Each structure stands twice: as structure tokens, then as C-alpha cells.
Amino acid sequence: MVIGNLLDIHPRELKFTFELRRQASCSMQLSNKTDKYVAFKVKTTNPKKYCVRPNSGVVPPRATCGFTVTMQAPKEAPPDMQCRDKFLIQSIVAPYGATVKEITPEMFNKEYGKTLEEFKLRVVYIPANPPSPIPEESEEGSSPTASPLEDGNKTTSLFDVTRSLETPKKSLETWSMISKLTEEKALALQQRQKLSQELDLLRKEVRETRLNSYFLLLSALVGLLGILVGYSIK
Asked: At a CB cut-off of 8 Å and minimum separation 6, what does 22 contact?
């Protein structure tokens, strides 16, 4: 945790799980330790690589506010997994009852008489598939030639590297399958709705046909009754 006069920042580093061709996010928390409204702004040395939401805001007195930093999917790993990117969090006392809409870039200019706090945070990469620990060699009975156990460790390490490279491909295949199943489900629902509509229409036609048949039969009976009445009168 980074402790300041206005805000406490947690954690003190931005840690991202590093995996090729996959985005990673890190959540930060700001705690206002004063009885005043505190405005903050987040800056980075590599704005094209990171997306900060929200990148500015207001923390009410004795309250907590958070923001999320999303790192774009990396295409290659840096040497020794070291990142030189930095973040700067600026904070300053804001007018009472201030809102996000009232926050302007000019508020964070360094001017005489302003109490502007700044904290620099570094970025740390955490490997998605950390290497397996290497077992310690026995002091007794050691030999210069590689033992079968050592060969097995080398094979395992190569397998872990291959598996880590294949992980994005498997993830893409999984998402593709999920997308295909979702489309098939939507198509099945549409067909079901269409069949239901056709069935309702068929039922309606059957009812109308039955009614027409009843009317024809009734008309025929009335006509026959009229003929019989005519003969009886004669």
C-alpha cells in the first residue's frame, strides 16, 4: 500500500498476468483519508498500451474509489520479463461536493500554493505458466553425466513451453466452438418460433373450415326442412 496525505493507494504495484495475445487487467483502490473531497487523475508513460477506466474522478471524504487498468494483448515477451512502463497518480483537494464533470486537467497543474500529491507506480509482469522448480542435486553420488531424472525435467520444461504457446490457439478454438453453438441455438429458436406460428395458423384454418362446414350443413338442413314443409302443405 502507498500511504499519502490525501489518498492511500492499494496495491503499490500494477501486476498483470502476462500471456501472449491475451489482455490482462489490474484493479486499483484509492482511499480518501481526509474530510475533504479529493480529485485524482491517472497518467501512464505508454497510453497506447493501457486503457484506464476511469482515468480521473472524485473520492468523497472517508470513502473508497477504484479504477481498472487493462493491458492490450502483447505480441511478444520483453527481455527477462521486465517492464519499464510507469504510472502516475495525481491527487488534489477539490471543492466541496465536486463531481467528475467538474474535474479539469488544469486542476492538476503544478502551481504555487497548490497541494498536489503524486505517486509513481511500476508495472510488474507475472508469467501465466511459471517454470517448475529445479530439484537440488545430491551432494553424494553426483556424476557429471545427466541422469534420467534430469532428462525428464528438461522434457517437462519443453512441454510446458509448448503448452503455453498452444494455449492461445486452444482458447481461440474454444471461443469459436462456443460462438458456433450459440448461433445454432439461436437458429433453432427461430425455427421453433416459425413452426409455432405455422401451427397456430393451421389451427385457425382448421377452425374456420369446420365452421364453414357447419354452416353449409345447417343451410342444407334448413333447405331440406323447407322442402318437406312445402310438400306437407300441398
From this structure: 73, 128, 168, 171
pLDDT at position 161 is 44
What radius of gyration do the chain's Cα atoms show?
Answer: 37
11 DSSP 8-state letter: S
pLDDT tops 80 at residue 70 = yes
pLDDT (0 to 100) of residue 48: 95
Give me the pLDDT at residue 15, please.
Answer: 95
* Structure-block grid coordinates of residue 220: 342444407
Q: Cα separation of 19 and 126, whole Å?
A: 9
Maximum C-alpha span of the chain: 136
| DSSP string across 111-163 | -TT--EEEEEEEEEEEESSPPPPPPPPPSSS--SSPPHHHHHHHHHHHHHHHH
